[in-house]
């Protein structure tokens, strides 16, 4: 691993989250939008890459999380900025950990942008306290099927609350059957 040119960045874009899950620890989320300005984020990306390249790295993996990272007002701009440099890298991949609560239109824009990367992936956090009807589960699954159709790799994570275990197991099977 020491001799690969992959530079990995794990970036918590802010603690703001639109969900209030009962099992989330207090310091992991916030009701306050605490995002850094987009231009500062773009300059930070450039500085990270400059320093990495000075040290012989020219492949990059950016993993973005939060809170809920998709609510950073410049999230898609950050993705575009990263995408604009793909041609100057040996390999670039992006990953996000998200509750996938944004609407389908947002995901349509997202897949257009991430198509520029060598690899894109999502860890979709399924939160039954908020995705709490069959219609909401279908919408959650629809978005994940859609991004997979556009070559975005998907993993679903969910908290298995003991009292809900059977229901959550059946919902897991539903997502499995949906693909």
Automatic annotation (TrEMBL):
List, alphabetically, the InterPro entries matched. Aldolase_TIM, Radical_SAM_PqqE_MftC-like, rSAM, rSAM_sf
**GO terms assigned for molecular function:** catalytic activity; iron-sulfur cluster binding; metal ion binding
* Pfam families per record: Radical_SAM
Iron: is it a keyword of this entry?
yes
Ranges of residues in domain Radical SAM core: 3-179
* Keywords noted in UniProt: Iron, Iron-sulfur, Metal-binding, S-adenosyl-L-methionine
The protein's name is Radical SAM core domain-containing protein
Natural source organism: marine metagenome
Lineage, please?
unclassified sequences, metagenomes, ecological metagenomes
């Amino acid at each position: 691993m020491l001799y690969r040119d992959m530079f990995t960045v794990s970036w918590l874009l802010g603690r703001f989250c639109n969900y209030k899950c009962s099992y989330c620890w207090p310091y992991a989320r916030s009701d306050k939008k605490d995002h850094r300005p987009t231009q500062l984020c773009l300059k930070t990306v450039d500085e990270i890459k400059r320093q990495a390249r000075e040290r012989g790295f020219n492949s990059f993996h950016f993993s973005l999380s939060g809170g809920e990272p998709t609510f950073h007002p410049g999230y898609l701009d950050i993705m575009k900025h990263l995408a604009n440099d793909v041609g100057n890298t040996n390999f670039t991949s992006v990953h996000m950990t998200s509750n996938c609560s944004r609407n389908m239109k947002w995901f349509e824009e997202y897949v257009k942008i991430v198509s520029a990367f060598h690899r894109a992936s999502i860890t979709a956090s399924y939160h039954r306290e908020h995705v709490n009807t069959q219609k909401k589960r279908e919408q959650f699954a629809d978005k994940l099927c859609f991004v997979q159709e556009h070559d975005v790799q998907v993993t679903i994570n969910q908290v298995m609350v003991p009292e809900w275990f059977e229901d959550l197991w059946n919902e897991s099977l539903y997502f499995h059957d949906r693909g």
